[in-house]
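Record type: monomer structure entry
Structure origin: computed from sequence
Chain ID: A
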Amino acid sequence: MDDALQQRLARLKDDERRRSAQQSAMRRMLSQDYATLEDKVAAVKTVQKEDKTRVVSAISAMLGQHRKS
């Protein structure tokens, strides 16, 4: 591999590790019983800024489940 390709691969791996760590932290925060409502809202807002498609998909899924009930 040439140098530019190795650097690009290293950046992609770093980005993926960062996203994975953020997602894990958000999941832990949302699942904690002692987390306040404000903490949970802040976590959702953070996820929304990072990945709007994921939030829209989750809301659509919840609405779809609600309509089926």
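Annotation 1: The chain has one domain: 3-68.
Annotation 2: The mean pLDDT is 83.
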